[in-house]
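Exercise 7. Given the encoded structure of a 296-residue chain, write a plausible sequence.
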C-alpha cells in the first residue's frame, strides 16, 4: 500500500505484518529518503523566500547620488520639458546655473566656488524678471532634493481665507503644512529619489501683504513660516537645506545719494530677527545688477 504525505510517497507494510512499537517510527527506503529530502529542500526555500519578501517590502529605497554632469544634463532636459525650448545660459545667469547644478549634485565645489554651505538652503536674489522663479521652479523636481515652490502671495491668500459659514478656514492652521517638511504624494517614488518628504521654496518674498489679517488677527505670514522652519532646524526636526526662497529685496535698505530711501531691505520689512534667520537658513545667490528683465 502507498501513502502520499507532504509531497513524499511511502510504501507501507501490509496491515497483518505491521507491529506497533514505543518509538513510533519506521525505517525509510533509499527512494523514500530522497523524496523526503527533496521536499524538505523545497519547504526550506519557500520559508526563506517568504521571510525575504516580508523583509524587502519593509525596506525603503535610499536616495541616490548624482554628479554635477548628471544634474546639468537633467536640468537642460527638464527646462526643455517645462519651457518648450532650450534654456538660454548667458553671462547674466551662467554662474548661478552652475552653482545650482553643483548644489543639487551636493558637489563640494559649490562651497569653494560660491562661498556657501551645502547644508543650507538657497535664496535667489535679483531684479524683477531676471529668472529667479523660473530657475527655482525648474529645479523643484530635481532628482536629488525636490521641493514645493509656493508664491508668498498665495500663502497670504490661504491665511486670509474666511471659509463658508460654519466651516472656518484660513488662519494659522492653513499655514501649518508649510512650517514643517511636506509629505509628498504616494507613488512615483523614483521621481522623488525615494524621499518621503520634500522641502519648500517661498517665491517672491517681499511681494506679499506684510499685514495680512484673518478675522482681525494680523500676521506677517512669511515671518511666521520662516520662524517655524528655523525653529524646526534648531530642534533637529528639519534639515537646513529643506528651505529655499527668491526675493527682489536686498538685506539692507538702499538709499540714493541724498540719503532718501529707494528700496526697503529685508531687515526693514520683516525686522532684524527675520533677517538673521534668513542669513542662517540660506546661501545667497545674487544675480548681477546687469541681468536683463527676461519678460521684456
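Solution.
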Amino acid at each position: 500500500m502507498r501513502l502520499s504525505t507532504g509531497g513524499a510517497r511511502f510504501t507501507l507494510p501490509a496491515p497483518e505484518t505491521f507491529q506497533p512499537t514505543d518509538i513510533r517510527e519506521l525505517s525509510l527506503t533509499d527512494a523514500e529518503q530522497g523524496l523526503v529530502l527533496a521536499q524538505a529542500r523545497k519547504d526550506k526555500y519557500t520559508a526563506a523566500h517568504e521571510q525575504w519578501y516580508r523583509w524587502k517590502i519593509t525596506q525603503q529605497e535610499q536616495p541616490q547620488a548624482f554628479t554635477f554632469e548628471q544634474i546639468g544634463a537633467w536640468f537642460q532636459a527638464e527646462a526643455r520639458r517645462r519651457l518648450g525650448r532650450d534654456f538660454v545660459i548667458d553671462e547674466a545667469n551662467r554662474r548661478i546655473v552652475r552653482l545650482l547644478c553643483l548644489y543639487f549634485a551636493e558637489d563640494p565645489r559649490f562651497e569653494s566656488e560660491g562661498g556657501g554651505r551645502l547644508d543650507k538652503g538657497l535664496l535667489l536674489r535679483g531684479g524683477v524678471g531676471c529668472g529667479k522663479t523660473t530657475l527655482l521652479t525648474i529645479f523643484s523636481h530635481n532628482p536629488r532634493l525636490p521641493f514645493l515652490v509656493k508664491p508668498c502671495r498665495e500663502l497670504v491668500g490661504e491665511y486670509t481665507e474666511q471659509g463658508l459659514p460654519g466651516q472656518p478656514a484660513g488662519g494659522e492652521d492653513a499655514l501649518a503644512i508649510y512650517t514643517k517638511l511636506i509629505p509628498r504624494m504616494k507613488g512615483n517614488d523614483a521621481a522623488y529619489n525615494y524621499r518621503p518628504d520634500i522641502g519648500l521654496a517661498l517665491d517672491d518674498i517681499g511681494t506679499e501683504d506684510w499685514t495680512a489679517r484673518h478675522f482681525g488677527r494680523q500676521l506677517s505670514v512669511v515671518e511666521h513660516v520662516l520662524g517655524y522652519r528655523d525653529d524646526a532646524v534648531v530642534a533637529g526636526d528639519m534639515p537646513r537645506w529643506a528651505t529655499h526662497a527668491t526675493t527682489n529685496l536686498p538685506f539692507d535698505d538702499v538709499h540714493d545719494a541724498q540719503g532718501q530711501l529707494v528700496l526697503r531691505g529685508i531687515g526693514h520689512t520683516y525686522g532684524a530677527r527675520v533677517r538673521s534667520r534668513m542669513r542662517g537658513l540660506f546661501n545667497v545667490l545674487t544675480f548681477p545688477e546687469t541681468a536683463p528683465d527676461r519678460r521684456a
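Remark. The radius of gyration is 32 Å. Students should compare their own answers with the one above.
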